[in-house]
Amino acid sequence: MSKFLILGAGPSGLSFANKLLKNGVDDFLVLERFGEAGGLCRSVDVDGTAFDFGGGHFLDVRRKNVLDFLFAFMPESEWNTFDRDSQICIHGKFINSPIEANIWQMDLNQQVEYLKAIAVAGCNLGEEMPEHFVDWIYWKLGSKVAEDYMLPYNRKMFGKDLNELGTYWLSKLPNVSFEETLISCLEKKAYGSQPAHAKFYYPKKFGYGEIWKRMADNLGDRIIYNEKVNKIDLNTRTVNDKYSADIIVNTIPYAEFTDIEGMDSEVRALIDTLKFSSVVTEYHPENMDTHAQWIYYPDENLSYHRILVRHNFCSGSKGYWTETNLTRFKEDKNYPSFVNDYAYPLNTIGKNENMKTILDHLESKGVYGLGRWGEWQHYNSDVVVELAMNLADKLTN
């Protein structure tokens, strides 16, 4: 029996385990279903350079405590720093993201149409904020941004029934002021806040999976690979009938548990309401004539929703990869592709309340949810590292 049992060797589990070591605790095991660590942030070799098959994962520069922690495994000298260049392909041309700050880059007649729509958006007229996702997008951004970009892009990424989604996770979207957008168009410059990952790190060699590989190597034989977790007994804190611990930290999707003992039936029913999307990344060797690192495509005639331009951030590489919702993907055997069954937890209506009930119940049994899947939140890797560090400090204080 161990002090800690960590389920999953992705960024969350690896960070928690390594922070335990840093805190002087070495009585733990990590269970990982695959033969290597890294989760969605793993890299493989394609065409002689790294391919991050879980999608576009980069290290944000904003959390100094996270950077200090990760640079202990992979020094800052082994990373390149980039200014984010993300674009949107819309109306037959490329404009910078976010769309609301860069309408000025569109043709003049399109600028006029967008400005007219923004002027009568509900948030600018003082109308009450709606409850449903689709109505909220119209209210927040105006009909043109909604119909030309936000709604088709989100349908491609998350599915056709967007009103299954809540609006609580959209609060970070800024208000689109008519006056500010008009000034932006007149002055021909972006107006408003920078998007997430305005600056980011990416390894000079290898792929983003390298940092997680090194963190896994640091754990030695405390990781057990090729151990798929499917059964958990909350009363005895035992997994797969053979691994027990005082405390279990779960970072894997709850849908993987086919057998849960000791959980209230009402809570078990809430787990069944959790939804997620699956994506496929596909590698194309052709270089694109662009400086952008990633490009968003709202056109629903295209299967993929975004492209990551590999040669603009991965040293010595070529080509790009597409990211496509699994339900829209059609395999082309000329191009290598990778299926990510668990890509994005969906922010469905009532999810946060349901997750609080689930997590409170688990914690009462000595089981803690952590990270993107343990907390069922669309966290980036830098966020889950910080959460893991904080939880390790809390549980070893």
In short, what is this structure?
The chain is α/β, with parallel strands linked by helices and 397 residues long. The chain has helices at 11-22, 64-71, 108-119, 122-125, 133-141, 143-158, 178-187, 209-219, 265-271, 351-364, 371-374, 381-396, and strands spanning 2-7, 28-31, 44-46, 49-51, 59-60, 79-83, 86-90, 93-96, 199-203, 223-224, 231-233, 238-239, 243-250, 259-261, 276-284, 294-296, 306-308, 320-325, 337-345, 367-369.
Explain this structure.
The structure is a single chain. This protein is α/β, with parallel strands linked by helices and 397 residues long. The protein folds into two domains: 280 residues, FAD/NAD(P)-binding domain; 82 residues, no CATH class. Helix content is 31%, strand content 22%. The chain has twelve helices and 20 strands. Helix 1 links the parallel strand 1 and strand 2. The protein is globular, with a radius of gyration of 22 Å. The mean pLDDT is 94.
